[in-house]
Amino acid sequence: MEFFEQLIIPKFNYWIYVILMMIGMRAMIAKNNLVKKLIGMAIFQTAIILFYVSIGVKEGANIPILDHHMMPGEIHGGDPVVVAEFANPLPHVLMLTAIVVGVATLGLALAMSQKIYRAYGTLEEDDILSQIKLEPND
Amino acid sequence: MIPAFDIILLVFLVVTSVIALRVRDLLAASMVFGIYSFLICLLWAEMTAVDVAFTEAAVGAGVSTVIMVATVYQTARRSKD
Amino acid sequence: MKGLALFAVAFTGALLLYATGDFPDWGSLDSPANGGELSTHYIKEVRKETEVPNIVTAVLADYRGFDTMFETVVVFVAGIAIIAVLRDFGNGSRGYPPALANNLPEEPDLIVTQTCNLVIPVLQIFALYVLAHGHHSPGGGFQGGVMLGASYILIALANGVEAAMKILSERKILLMAATGILIYSGTGLVCLLLGENFLDYHVLSRILPTDPIMARSHAMLFVETGVAFTVTAVMFSIYANLATRGTLKGGL
After folding, report:
1. pLDDT of residue A70
2. Residue B50 phi, psi (nearest 5)
3. Chain C, 72-131: which have a CB under 8 Å from a chain A CB?
4. In chain B, domain spans
5. Domain edges within chain C
6. Which fold would CATH assign to domain A2-58+85-134?
7. DSSP-assigned letters across all residues of C7-67
8. Which residues of B touch A (CB under 8 A)?
9. Which contacts (CB < 8 Å, 24+ apart) does range C83-92 have?
10. A vs C: CB pairs below 8 A
11. Is the ipTM of this structure higher than 0.85?
12. Torsion angle, alpha carbons of C10, C14, C16, C22, to 10
């Protein structure tokens, strides 16, 4: 029981992220279908993004948006800001752009798989490889 | 952070990711991947990363599912594994 | 091959699981990332330096503006690359037909079309609100841009890609995407011309009728607008090209 309390419970989220990462990595290596490989890549990517965002979590903290009575100036009030009350904004910023870039690169990968389908008539990796081997090298 | 909600979401994440990779119908796989993205979005909202959750709701659960369905429509629907 | 893959994955996973023991506890306040000087500075000083309540927007568009600018460029380049990959420039591909194509009804469904026509104006107004209100609530250029792009995708889903292309033709898409980056880098360049560093917005108070702090706040809106232009155009362009194999005719 002590093992659970010390090792599993505080790190439970990290363990799940590693499991998700491994599911995605195994799909990227071992799956035969190109679209399945891309789904695996997207799962791998979200696992890494989850890991980054969870670095910025603070116990009992609020979302990183200041209340208006904390803003400076006479009409607002200028209450003091306690750093421990707000989640760390830096990982959020980095990962927000990573998600949008991720969908653009996913679109590029899907475009390439469409091009491969047009050339070989299949999305299965082994079929494509056998067709490439059958062609004469020129 | 709410521990019970957190654990339920994480378990569902693993389940949906395994289903998305095991199901042989690629259209179903793309839709299950959309569910996966939406669960991720809930997890981020729960981790107080609201901006990231907003982006994921628009991008992951919306646009990336749609472009994956478009690709499945333009290629083959069945997968061998 | 499959056994080897399983071994490699299990080995990497075991190493990573072993490494989780060294991580700081979940949500700890004094971990290197949370207790560090940088995030503390952002949380404490953002209200005095920029007067923007949403710290994420302030860091995204101001403190780390250079990073965001090149992320936008990556999105732009990916959009161009998708057109370059998919468009048939007449160099002879064999052209296997898709398995599912040509079994959709020709006429768009009445209920779907009417519902989308009702939803789209609301969606576009909300996207503009998200873009403009990103300083005070979750949102900003990326989110607003993606939602605006999604509204055009909805037009294409309901009425066909050709109908959507009449509203936002490919020439307009490319112009919009390039204009977004031009707005972003142009804001930085104006700062440079006024004698400060690239993307150092406070010097814009010389040409805007505001003080240096509010100039930073307003310049963030400019660059977020640029981001929204590029993201809108590229998201719609990705869908339109992927759904029609790059021909922009027929399709899903």
Report:
1. 79
2. -70, -35
3. 74-75, 78-79, 81-82, 85-86, 93-96, 98
4. 24-76
5. 48-88+107-243
6. Helix Hairpins (1.10.287)
7. HHHHHHHHHHHHHGGGSPPTT-TTSHHHHSHHHHHHHHHHHHHT--SBHHHHIIIIITHHH
8. 1, 6-7, 10, 13-14, 17-18, 20-21, 26, 29-30, 33, 36-37, 40, 43-44, 47-52, 55-56, 59-60, 63-64, 67-68, 70-72, 74-76, 79-81
9. C83/C237, C83/C241, C83/C246, C85/A108, C85/A111, C85/A112, C85/A115, C85/C246, C86/A111, C86/A114, C86/A115, C86/C241, C86/C242, C86/C245, C86/C246, C87/C241, C87/C246, C87/C247, C88/C246, C88/C247
10. 181
11. yes
12. 170
Note the pLDDT tens digit of each residue in B4-40: 888 899 999 999 999 999 999 999 999 999 999 999 9
> Model confidence over C51-109: pLDDT tens digits?
888 999 999 998 999 999 999 999 999 999 999 998 877 655 566 777 665 556 567 78
Is there a contact between B49 and A43 if contact means CB atoms under 8 Å apart?
A: no
pLDDT of residue B35: 94
pLDDT at C210: 87
pLDDT over 70 for what percent of chain C?
A: 94
Tens digits of residue pLDDT in A89-106: 999 999 998 998 899 999
CB proximity A45 to B under 8 Å: no
Q: Is B80 within 8 Å of A124 when comparing Cβ atoms?
A: yes
Q: Which of A78-87, A109-118, C84-93 has the lowest mean pLDDT?
A: C84-93
